[in-house]
Structure to design on (328 residues):
């Protein structure tokens, strides 16, 4: 199971090892799900309705948008912003999982709560994700800007984007959309860890303490947890994306209408007036596919890397014991 387990038969991993496993899981997962992320961001930023029945905007559905992006921008467009996105995934995975392991261990050692309960995983998962969000928000803003621009590129590369944004908008622009992000990330990540814990115990109760219960189970449980948590918290992700591209309207003109927002409340009010309640869920379909794959693969690879490190440590310990016995 993910998180500190006092019943585990192997020694607990250090925060550094958890960070390494988390960053590796984030890196592999990001490479696989990047196209869905680009589609989701394009839908989220479109003011016009996303609908194939009553087409109004540039993008009308998953397949139409995919064909459109491919024909206009090429296959590489589905990995636009991949460098900052990859840095974001590596950094976020490292901070989140290291914090989560530390927090669950702290709960076990300082309270009467069982560190492997779903409620503890909800709180620790939410707090761990908030820590990772504050650290990684600038990378998320850069990733969004790159994914949002079309072929009339405003930013040539990562370095150019950082220098241009600092010079024209100031350093605080990297934290645009932080408030809705934090409001969304705590319940989103908390629910991910909560439902992952619940599903893992329901689907495949570990035969012995410390066992992962099977990698396929990790993938299925993570996918289910990701879809449920994403649906519940999705509007906050949309608000964040709209706010992150503020001051970036020039690169969005050929995609359709553009809007400027004074802040989170103004963003919510304008969307509700112009786009209705459905506007809060634009891009939900690619987001659910992405979330199912992203969360499923993240937990899958995290458990794979964790168990690989545990096995390596166990093998090393066994070899040390054999050497000690031979020396005697």
């Amino acid at each position: 199971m993910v998180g500190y387990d006092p019943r585990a038969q192997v020694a607990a991993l250090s925060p550094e090892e958890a960070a390494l496993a988390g960053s590796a899981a984030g890196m592999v997962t990001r490479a696989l799900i990047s196209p869905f992320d680009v589609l989701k961001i394009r839908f989220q930023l479109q003011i016009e309705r996303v609908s194939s029945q009553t087409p109004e905007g540039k993008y009308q559905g998953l397949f139409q948008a995919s064909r459109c992006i491919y024909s206009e921008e090429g296959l590489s467009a589905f990995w636009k912003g991949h460098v900052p996105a990859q840095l974001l995934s590596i950094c976020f995975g490292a901070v989140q999982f290291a914090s989560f392991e530390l927090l669950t261990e702290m709960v076990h050692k300082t309270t009467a709560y069982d560190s492997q309960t779903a409620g503890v995983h909800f709180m620790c998962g939410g707090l761990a994700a908030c820590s990772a969000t504050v650290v990684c928000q600038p990378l998320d803003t850069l990733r969004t800007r790159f994914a949002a621009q079309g072929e009339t590129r405003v930013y040539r590369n990562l370095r150019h984007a950082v220098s241009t944004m600092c010079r024209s908008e100031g350093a605080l622009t990297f934290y645009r959309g932080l408030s809705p992000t934090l409001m969304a990330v705590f319940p989103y990540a908390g629910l991910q860890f909560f439902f992952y814990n619940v599903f893992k115990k329901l689907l495949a109760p570990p035969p012995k303490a410390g066992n992962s219960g099977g990698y396929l189970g990790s993938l299925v449980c993570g996918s289910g947890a990701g879809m449920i948590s994403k649906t519940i918290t999705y509007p906050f992700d949309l608000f964040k994306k709209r706010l992150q591209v503020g001051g970036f309207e020039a690169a969005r003109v050929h995609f359709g209408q553009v809007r400027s927002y004074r802040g989170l409340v103004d963003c919510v009010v304008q969307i509700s007036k112009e786009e209705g309640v459905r506007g809060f869920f634009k891009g939900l379909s690619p987001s659910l596919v992405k979330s199912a794959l992203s969360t499923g693969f993240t937990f899958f690879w995290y458990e794979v890397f964790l168990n690989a490190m545990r096995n390596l440590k166990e093998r090393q310990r066994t070899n040390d014991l054999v050497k000690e016995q031979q020396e005697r």
